[in-house]
Specification:
disordered N terminus, 8 helices, mainly alpha, Ferritin, 67% helix
Length: 210
């Protein structure tokens, strides 16, 4: 996993997803990920578990939104399957799953979430869209440098994470008649800051090495 880092994506990413993200993952993060496969996989597994938990939480809290219930049910099942798949890969590589402290990324985005409904839900869904889009983009950045087993797995994830991004942003737009572009821009500005500024702890969604 130590091949030179390029700026190319191995997998074709939807134009809408690339345009949604405020910036590309810096090459310095990619290199750090390649140098820290154990942490990368452990935190990846943790992210999949958190994603499933978030989807389930939304299902319990917003029981009157039929489309949301359907999409989040599907998403939770997929994320749990991905969790199982990552843990299986870790086992074959002698990597033990353990708890890691959370990165600043998700919490940094959620600091902007408004408190009153339906604005709160709209913001949560925008955050979900950004997390899924960034995950998808990072999988694509890593794929050219990975071994065959992990590259194949991540190619499959690019497709599902791209679909999850579309589900989240579509649901956000359905919930309000007002344009949400201003809110999206605010979250994108925060996301770019989190991705491009120095970060002490390496995680799947961390910033550049401090």
């Amino acid at each position: 996993m130590n091949s030179p880092v390029s700026t190319e994506h191995d997998a074709s990413l939807p134009v809408e997803l690339l345009e949604f993200l405020p910036c590309e993952t810096p090459a310095s993060w990619v290199q750090r990920a390649l140098d820290n496969e154990t942490l990368l996989l452990i935190d990846h597994a943790q992210c999949e578990k958190k994603a499933a938990s978030t989807a389930m939480s939304l299902m319990y809290r917003y029981v009157d939104h039929t489309d949301l219930l359907t999409k989040m049910s599907q998403l939770a099942r997929e994320e749990l399957l991905h969790f199982e798949q990552v843990v299986k890969i870790m086992k074959t590589r002698g990597i033990e799953y353990r708890h890691l402290s959370a990165s600043r990324y998700a919490e940094g985005l959620r600091e902007l979430v408004r408190k009153d409904e339906p604005d709160r839900l709209v913001d949560i869904l925008i955050v979900g869209a950004l997390i899924e889009a960034r995950s998808c983009e990072r999988f694509a950045r890593l794929i050219p440098h990975l071994d065959e087993e992990l590259a194949k797995f991540y190619r499959g994830l690019v497709k599902s994470e791209g679909r999850h991004f579309e589900d989240y942003i579509s649901l956000a737009r359905q919930l309000t008649d007002a344009p949400i572009e201003t809110r999206i821009a605010e979250f994108k500005a925060r996301e770019e800051q989190l991705v491009t500024t120095p970060d002490v702890a390496f995680r799947f969604h961390s910033g550049v090495p401090a």
